[in-house]
Amino acid sequence: MPDADPHPAPPHGRPWAGEPRRRDLVALDALAAAAYLLAALAAPSPLGAAGWAAPLMAAVGPPLALRRVWPVPVLAVVAAGAAAAVLAGGGVLPFAAVAFALYPVALKARRRRFEPTPTVGAAGMVVIVLATATGTPACCGPLPSVLLLGVPALVGTWALARVMRERRTAAARWAAELAERAVAEERLRIARELHDSVAHSMSVIAVKAGIANHVAESRPEEARAALRVIEATSRDALGEMRQVLGVLRAADEDPRSGEAGGGPPGAAPAALAPLPGTDALPALVERAAMAGVRVDLAVRGAEALSEQVGAAVYRIVQESVTNVVKHAAPARCAVRVEAARGRVRVEVTDDGPGARVLPAAAEGGHGLIGMRERVAVYGGTFAAGPRPEGGFRVAAEFPLPEARPGAAAPERAAADA
């Protein structure tokens, strides 16, 4: 509701605007492999190292350029070459190559499932440590540095990859939830608009159809009058339906071509009527009277309302009167709309259920929920329930957007509500 952020921030901060291309990453790996090769060739040979230690250290560098293309084979080759280099007394530099090759493998390793990639990395670490600890005297010298620097580097690389893997999973989950929420919000918007535009007319049609069926033989003139009301109301409902569909198509409009989605290419977009506001309330009262509900309408200060606020007021009154038509007709209804001192107050009361023309409509509608959500958009209050003296009361009050900070966002949200 109002406290919920409709667009929450992604986990661990804002995501990158775009992912780098694969060939760019491979090029960076090639540069890193070249840098390692230069470092291996320029590094002085450790004391007591075998003559073939330096070539082995340099040999593990070129495969690093392909660590993203063939991660597991590259890790196996680099781990084997690094183990041989350390066995020859090459020091801890080969560990850097192993860590560099290990990262993409650990990044894609799946948890709770046996994978050969962690096994390859662990085997390489074990081989290097055992080779250093039990090898010839030439390789026994760097054992402390291997244990203090080399092994922690590999363990840290695996831990870093695991953290990054979890962050990527959380970001993907957040993106999926955001997409699902957008779809749900769009469905709710469509359902609310269709409900608000059609429910009132269908209620009038249902009532008049029941009357026509009841008096068709005994009072044919009254039956024909009811049919004329059904005809007029049906035309109004079709007009509102076209308006709602036009608004929904406009939401998919292509900003580059100006064409509305859902229509044939090149077709002119449908003309959109303005949103119904408080000036449409008298016509609503007339339609309610056709269904047997006498409405006493009082509107004050409506000229100060914006189009979106006026539409919200109209929908609240429309749904309230529709409920009277469905559940209490024939009855008397009072509608009060007042805009003053930066607030809008809407109250709809009726004098209780009269003789039912038709059985009560099935429960489980979303009219009260929709009204409550419309009011919540503006940070207002909503109440609906039976009155102590009989009848039903719907009351809504909310501040005008101009009267409180941060008005622009609710104004736009109400246009979609």
TL;DR of this structure?
Helices cover 58% and strands 10% of the residues. With 417 residues, the protein is α+β, with helices and mostly antiparallel strands.
List the helices and strands and how they pair.
Blueprint: H1 22-42, H2 53-59, H3 71-87, H4 93-108, H5 116-134, H6 137-140, H7 143-215, H8 220-251, H9 281-290, E1 293-300, H10 307-327, E2 331-340, E3 343-350, H11 367-377, E4 381-386, E5 392-399, H12 408-416
Parallel strand pairs: 1-2
Antiparallel strand pairs: 2-3, 3-5, 4-5
Helix pairs in contact: 1-2, 2-3, 3-4, 3-5, 4-5, 4-7, 5-7, 7-8, 7-10, 9-10, 10-11, 10-12
Could you walk me through the main structural features you see in this protein, from its secondary elements to its overall organization?
By secondary structure, the chain is α+β, with helices and mostly antiparallel strands. It has 2 domains: 22-141, no CATH class; 179-252 and 271-416, Histidine kinase-like ATPase, C-terminal domain (Heat Shock Protein 90). The protein contains 12 helices and 5 strands. The chain has helices spanning 22-42, 53-59, 71-87, 93-108, 116-134, 137-140, 143-215, 220-251, 281-290, 307-327, 367-377, 408-416, and strands spanning 293-300, 331-340, 343-350, 381-386, 392-399. The two termini are 13 Å apart. Mean pLDDT is 71; it is low at 1-18, 112-117, 136-141, 254-272, 354-365 and 403-417.
